[in-house]
Amino acid sequence: MIPVNSVLQVGLFPEVMQKQIDQRLKTIHLLDPQAQPPSGEFTGILIRSNTQLPQGLLEQIPSIRMVATCGVGYDNLPLAYLKAHGIKASNTPGVLNDAVCELAIGMLFGLLRRIPQAQEFVKSSAWSKAPFVTTTTLAGKCVGIAGMGRIGQDLAARLESFKVQIAYTGPTRKNVPYEYYPNIQALAKACDVLFLACPASPETEKMVGAEVLEALGPMGYLINIARGSVVDEGALLVALQQKKIAGAALDVFEDEPNPNSGFLSLDNVLLTPHIGSATAETRELMTNLAISNLEAFYNQQPLLTEVKIKLE
Ligand code: 8YV
């Protein structure tokens, strides 16, 4: 049982998540993570993966012993501080794979078949003057996935039905039947569509820069469902503006919710506001899993999905 008002809820939550929270526990809500925390004997924090947990907040509340994040990524947490202070953390892997993979595939076809532009073409009555541009077929292409984790594997399994060759890079996986490339440069050279499905980490920081984009080439497409930090956005903008790659679909950006304005005027992009897991069913599952982790902590049981903090 989670003691009333022992959990500090940090940041803004969508209505469907807030409804689950209000049904299952009584939190004190700190809407602005940077604001002075309310007084209280808090021992747990509930936050979303898209909200940075300031280390300063933890220093101001030394009684915190557990942080539950709603989301699979936990790059929003000050991992070194949590580890140094013996603070447990949990995330919500697995329950959002369907939603993220479905969006990724929607972005893939939206990008290759220029669906947003096609709708604009119809709405603007341009159709009466000329046929819409010819686009490209996915079947027969090579699709690369950087990051063959839970989401990457789930995405690959779905992609198999589209008659594509699948390849990947990142940590090797024994149980996958796809071609492996030792680095993202080699994968970008070999594939026509490159998905980014890797965690944000020091190793993946700006992993996709000018050289990788050059390797992807003028017929290549980039789709980022990971984190904005994985891409050098300056290099991507130049590659898109100079048509060094055919196009990019981005659900994540370095500065959310204020993406680089250079993307907004481009015709060879498809942009979505970090909605990979944003379905009602998935957000409910994530929230309930996060709360179940908090319950496990307060009941002194093993967490359901504990974040194993590994630091260099
Ligand atoms: C969260 C995310 O799903 O799961 C992640 O890592 O990228 C986020 O979109 C979302 O913030 C949950 O509310």
Automatic annotation (TrEMBL):
Belongs to the D-isomer specific 2-hydroxyacid dehydrogenase family. InterPro entries: D-isomer_2-hydroxyacid_DH, D-isomer_2_OHA_DH_cat_dom, D-isomer_DH_NAD-bd, NAD(P)-bd_dom_sf. It comes from the Bacteria. PANTHER family: 2-HYDROXYACID DEHYDROGENASE YGL185C-RELATED, 2-HYDROXYACID DEHYDROGENASE-RELATED. Signal peptide: none annotated. Keywords: NAD, NADP, Oxidoreductase. Residues 41-307 form the D-isomer specific 2-hydroxyacid dehydrogenase catalytic domain. GO terms for molecular function: glyoxylate reductase (NADPH) activity; hydroxypyruvate reductase [NAD(P)H] activity; NAD binding. Pfam families: 2-Hacid_dh, 2-Hacid_dh_C. Residues 105-276 form the D-isomer specific 2-hydroxyacid dehydrogenase NAD-binding domain. GO terms for cellular component: cytosol. This is 2-hydroxyacid dehydrogenase.
